[in-house]
Design brief:
Layout (H helix, E strand, L loop, with lengths): L21 H15 L9 H8 L3 H13 L3 E4 L5 E4 L8 H9 L23 H15 L4 H15 L1
Antiparallel strand pairs: 1-2
Length: about 160
């Protein structure tokens, strides 16, 4: 009699992700919109950015303050007022945007911003965490905002 092969049992693996919060994602979306409008030098209102992306303008107000504080965005008041990039999108990186909105990018609370437990000098994981942080920093610092804006425009063209 032949043996019936049964599939291996499904094991649930625990997934622990390094993740970007909504502040980081919305910050990127907001900056991409400003980058797309950069050539026209027309300031955009937060309300128009929020409507375009289906986001809360109140939440974007919190995010834009951080971006202004880090010197990535300028604001102007009045009838033609709004927000615009402070530099060319080629000169702004995803890393700058994420640090302005998320804070320092660390894989774990341990080791971030020089914060270590009392046993840091003997920590077996600190080297791994430092390498992960460096790899993440290298990647996000190599992505210019202009590339993100171009990719966004290409996606829009293929959808239309």
């Amino acid at each position: 009699m032949a043996r019936i092969r049964r599939p291996a049992p499904i094991t649930k693996k625990r997934v622990n992700m390094v993740k970007m919060t909504t502040k980081g994602r919305y910050g990127i979306k907001l900056m991409v919109d400003l980058a797309v409008g950069y050539r026209e030098q027309m300031p955009l209102s937060l309300k128009s950015i929020a409507q375009h992306n289906g986001l809360s303008d109140k939440y974007l107000e919190q995010i834009i303050k951080n971006l202004i504080g880090e010197g990535l965005v300028r604001s102007s008041r009045g009838k033609q007022g709004g927000y615009r990039l402070s530099r060319d999108p080629k000169e702004i990186t995803a890393g700058e945007i994420l640090r302005a909105t998320e804070g320092e990018l660390v894989p774990s609370a341990c080791g971030g911003d020089g914060i270590h437990c009392g046993g840091a000098e003997l920590c077996a994981t600190l080297g791994v965490l430092d390498r992960i942080k460096k790899a993440v920093d290298d990647v996000v610092d190599a992505i210019p905002l202009s590339d993100l804006a171009e990719e966004y425009i290409e996606k829009q063209l293929t959808l239309n």
